[in-house]
């Protein structure tokens, strides 16, 4: 109701053939935090109120057609700045319902300590609120002021709020000030507007090809040459705009955009369980959630791209302040830059037909069927798995865990990793953690997720507060910092173009791996960082290095490259053993690393990662692959190239082993103990994550035989 809203009242009505049923919140004095809470309560419960009204009216079809009203009264509610610990034996108040039959109003009054009901993983608070609302609705329909049958209310709760995961309000306790700061970020995320993106395409092909508008480019060479020129054209446009803008202004505003996206993504992941419970199965929750994640990705990658370009191209003085209009334009152009480059990757990798249509307005079209048939379903499945995983971790958010004593790196990481890390980056993991903690403290001190300081102040804090040596300070800053350089498209010594171009992942000069942005190397030079981005970037570098998730070429030291090779080899073997263990749990006999020579085959055929069999005659020949998640067209193309089943690629080796075993099945007899039937010998490619090959129909192995552990047969 806009009329109510103009008067400062949150109100809405569910309109049915019976008449309108209003739900409103009685206004109260308070700050922004209180107003936000009242809005969250009203906007969250009005959806459940809609369901509740339908259920109640089905019970009382003869009820009067007059308008009725449920008022939520939070006037007495205490909203504490800090977490309030419930005391042992403390009884937390429940809402009280007062019914006025003459005015057709039921008021639900909440006690001062009512928010404590929301400080637990169960939806106790939601049930109490909705039960009180249901009490008011039933009372008004029955024409009574008290004595509503509790079994009626129980039935309504089961039908409307049956899932214990349905949550409206989430109150988590944290002992870490930085967590509190990040959760309270006030900037709303900015998403890339479709209109801005389309507008950035106008006249795109002009000057990039001699072909006339309305015609087509039909060879791989022509298409790639055209797309490369378009990429260069967009980059030149971005560079020209950045050179007119103040560097601090651009970095400050774009960091705010990026931090808002990080916070929004974290909120969705924390509340994934509630989203699934509230909207499934009547709505496609996963599709909606993935669409929002796509919106976030469509602005976060362009934002990081602009940050990396701005630190090099924007002047430190004399430039214009970044306006919202110019911000939208830059983000749209950066997004377009990435799209065109990925189109080029798709053509270059033979994933799509090399054919580009040129339009009169300067746009072009290209076959993106590969996105729809492979990339989109692949990312959808991966996203769904992650969203379900986030929902499963919901209860952990409520664990009342006091901070433990500082854990040393040698209690968490192997000596080999610690040594390799120190050689590679010039500081120990402990010193890196100390540096991160100090920068998080700096954000809390400033009460801002976007921190602006100077290099001298940063070094002073790291040395005096955290005790880092001058060498460790320098190493920390160089490990996690991107310094200004004269041109973005000219990599500094020791780096390559693949380290800076934004359509590649696992880049050594990305603002993900290096989230601290430095204007120079003098003490009075400015330094910017986003607290959320810094925390993610630190985890990205430390965790992915330790787990071997970064390629060897990401590093420069022989020690780290050797560590990455060794850990990947060991974890590949560990993954194969995990597959074997899972098969044993569902009744298979299993052996790992069965040499093909043991079966009578030539030595060049290698070994079978997992050989599984049952006395009833079923046999599984399993190839295990622990792969990186592919997130770009180039990475998808690379994985598909490695597993096409063509001569000497990684799938071909598996196919050769299968063909030899099926052609000479008696070789298995000495292992399985019986003469096998070739028709009962099956094969699979088991992966540790979703892989794009699962969606290809052109492989010499069926797509349903490719996939993660959970897809293994159980019979």
Number of domains as seen in the coordinates: 4
Number of strands: 17
Count of individual helical segments: 21
> What can be said about the biggest beta sheet?
5 strands, mixed
Shape type: globular
* Whole-number mean pLDDT: 88
Which percent range describes the beta-strand content? 5-15%
CA gyration radius, whole angstroms: 30 Å
How widely separated are the two ends? Answer: 58 Å
Uncertain regions: pLDDT < 50 for 5+ in a row?
none
What does this structure look like?
The chain has 715 residues and is of the alpha/beta class. It has four domains: 168 residues, no CATH class; 221 residues, no CATH class; 148 residues, no CATH class; 146 residues, Trna Endonuclease, Chain: A, domain 1, CATH 3.40.1350. The chain is 46% helix and 12% strand. It has 21 helices and 17 strands. The strands form four sheets. Strands 1-2-3-5-4 form a five-stranded mixed sheet. A hairpin with a 2-residue loop joins β1 and β2. α9 packs across α12 and α10 packs across α12. It is globular and about 90 Å long.
